[in-house]
Each structure stands twice: as C-alpha cells, then as structure tokens.
Amino acid sequence: xxxxxxxxxxxxxxxxxxxxxxxxxxxxxxxxxxxxxxxxxxxxxxxxxxxxxxxxxxxxxxxxxxxxxxxxxxxxxxxxxxxxxxxxxxxxxxxxxxxxxxxxxxxxxxxxxxxxxxxxxxxxxxxxxxxxxxxxxxxxxxxxxxxxxxxxxxxxxxxxxxxxxxxxxxxxxxxxxxxxxxxxxxxxxxxxxxxxxxxxxxxxxxxxxxxxxxxxxxxxxxxxxxxxxxxxxxxxxxxxxxxxxxxxxxxxxxxxxxxxxxxxxxxxxxxxxxxxxxxxxxxxxxxxxxxxxxxxxxx
Length: 299
Ligand SMILES: [Zn+2]
Prior knowledge:
Bound molecules: zinc ion
CATH architecture of the largest domain: Alpha-Beta Complex
Largest sheet: 7 strands, mixed
Distance between the termini: 21 Å
Order of helices and strands: EEEHEEEEHEHEHEEHEHEHEHE
C-alpha cells in the first residue's frame, strides 16, 4: 500500500532519498496539510551536509504552503513551534506530499498570493523582514545587501516598502547582480546605514563592518559565518556601530507580510518536481553557488 511520498535525509553528506512514509494523522489541535509548494532554502544544503545542525533521518523543508485536507483553506506554515523547535530541522518538514502541524502554525494565505510565493515568504522573506526590523531601518537610510538570493531579493523589495533610501547589493554572480541592478539597486557601496549579511563570507562581512556609516548596523543572518576577527575599537566602538544577530522571525511578522501585497514572483526563478534527483540537484547547486534565487518544489 502506498503511504505518503517524502524526500528524506537518511544520512548526512549523502543525497536525500525518496520514500513512502506512514500517512500522517492529525491529533487534537493539529491540521493535516496537502503541500502544494515547498521552497528549497540554502539552510537545507547546510543541514544535509552538517550532522551538528540536524539529526537524521529527517524530512527537510521549512518553506511550506498548501491546503488543509478536506477544506478549501489555503495556508502557509510558520516553521517555528511554540517550544522553539523548527519544522524541517527538529521535526519533519515539507519535502513531502503532506504534513501535520499545530493549527496555530497554519497561516491563512490571502487570495492574491500564490502557494509558491506564500511558501518562500515563510523563510526567505520573513527572515529578511525580521532582519530589517532588528536593524531599526529608518526612512531614507541606505541598505547594503550581501548576497542576492531568496533573502536578498526579499530584503530589496521590503527595504523599498519600508522607505529605505539607496539599496546597494554585494553579489559576485553576474546574472544575480544584473537582476539587482534591473530592480534599481547599485552594485557595491559605502557609508551604509544598514547592512544585511546573507552570505556568511568572513572577508565580505569584515568589509561590510568597515563600510558602515557611523552608528550603522550590521545584521548577521547567514548561518555559516563562524569565526571572524575585527578591531573592536576602530571597527565598532569608535564609530558606535552595532552588530546584531538575526535568527527566524515572529508570527506577527508573518501575518504582516501576508497583508503587504508584495510581488515576490521575481524571487522564484525555478520550479522542480517533488523528486529526490531534482531536489538533490538544487541542493548541490546551492553548495557550489547558483545563479538561481529561489527554487520551489511544486506538484
Ligand atoms: Zn530557510
């Protein structure tokens, strides 16, 4: 008998595997969601490789949208449980046909937002929004975006919406830099009021700290940045700069994003079927560096 099709990480450092899992059954306070779109995040590539981040076996995938089974209700999934566990990391995620989540984690999707856009909103856009809020971005301030992937393009659109001044993108991949320019950003820049790190490259982050205006704020978002050494006096203290950590988002922010009427269509540059080969290919590419912004698994 066929259960539910899922793409699972069985072992770190190995390709994900397509398997049938038991049909998930919702208990009281939970809902069963038939998944229509699942974004593939750069974090999934880190999770697949690094046993210190996620235990195996695990179904990855934390950008999820679909329909509550037996209803017409379109919902996206807030990947954070109230106890802090994360869907697609500490509990099984969205690289599957169905998922059971607490009813409180099902965020209604307005009619004007597609499943694909709602899915990527749950991580890329929500994290970018949270980062801009943590930075206390003020109207007219300049924003530097390190890395123009799913988060970078979300940050660009949101910075505009929040009234930012000039937006500067730091991106080496020519195709992505070109798209950033087309959307009105300049490539590179100095005297940044706010800088957002979505790459995690030590040298680039150091350069960003030194490129901050006095009282400028750097928000660290990329999860792969570990050791970094800077001159505490010259680089931070003397200019009253701030270095801020950003992890996840709040549920209120997800609800706000749904009402913003953002057009994220340009952030989704590829769609793949829910097949292990296709998903592994995308994760391999994310590890090497890809010209794509966000890839979404669709049925
Ligand atoms: Zn993510």
